[in-house]
């Protein structure tokens, strides 16, 4: 089940049984959990009919006892297990035991209890684990992807409205396209922008001045330096990304994705497709597509293919060898400028 379908169930107040939410953005998941709480639980009996557990510490028996306890002057109660890390990919004994216990119990969950469990992916590349797939037979899995396009614009517009500040549609989209797609970061950047522009209208320059360069912007620049045969500049950006806390595998994934996009753009252009067609086919913002078209002209198709293969080879090396991951990435960048 995707987030849209789940939110429709919330609107209809038609929630039943157990729902397991999973995805990379905890703040977005928390917003959904809050919607469920406000829909299911009467504010007057919130302390009695809403029970929350830390998934990193809780024992199965505690959750089961909370689920079995009757609601107080209400037809339903809500039990929430947050940060249920036992649903991740670790195959340790304790995680297996908890998953097995939940698997056995959930088919007999009382009809008056709604059990909401959520697990936050460690990064954007993580896939649903075998633990999650096992529980799919007895629970409703809800995939909470990062918001994109009009859904993201609508969500961010609501944040500005909540703060009782106006921002026009063009500037709103520009802000969303420049900020990292993470709800915690977005909310912090909105607050900074509102403080900075207190008492006056927000301008494009305000957004440019305040927003830090995003990781995707840095990857674009890194690949640009590869095209210019300037490995020292590309390595400098790599070091900056690592300093900001990006993982080596995350950076490699973004570089690989950039070359894949360039390949699709280059291939499309050679087939006679224009920017408007590429925007629709690749689901890109027109501004981003224009930048990629310009960047793709600095490479041949064969060069892009070779870079993609180098990324895959580096990924294998990172997984199989004990060598320094940073050095492996530096070797990749040096080799890509030689093709």
Which percent band covers the strand fraction? 5-15%
- Mean pLDDT over the residues: 88
Gyration radius from CA atoms, angstroms: 23 Å
| End-to-end distance | 44 Å
Outline the low-pLDDT stretches.
Answer: none
CATH secondary-structure class of the largest domain: Alpha Beta
Task: Write up this protein.
60% of the residues lie in helices and 9% in strands. It has 339 residues and is α/β, with parallel strands linked by helices. It folds into three domains: 3-143, Rossmann fold (3-Layer(aba) Sandwich), CATH 3.40.50; 149-210, Helicase, Ruva Protein, domain 3; 215-336, Zinc Finger, Delta Prime, domain 3 (Up-down Bundle), CATH 1.20.272. The chain has a five-stranded parallel sheet with strand order 2-3-4-1-5, with helices on both faces. Strand 2, helix 4 and strand 3 (77-82) form a beta-alpha-beta unit. Helix 14 (275-282) packs across helix 15 (286-296). The longest helix is centred in the last third of the chain and has 23 residues, at 248-270.
Describe the secondary-structure layout.
Layout: H1 3-11, E1 17-23, H2 26-40, H3 46-49, E2 50-54, H4 60-68, E3 77-82, H5 93-106, E4 113-120, H6 130-135, E5 140-143, H7 149-162, H8 169-178, H9 183-196, H10 204-210, H11 215-227, H12 231-243, H13 248-270, H14 275-282, H15 286-296, H16 301-320, H17 325-336
Parallel strand pairs: 1-4, 1-5, 2-3, 3-4
Helix pairs in contact: 11-12, 11-13, 12-17, 13-15, 13-16, 14-15, 16-17
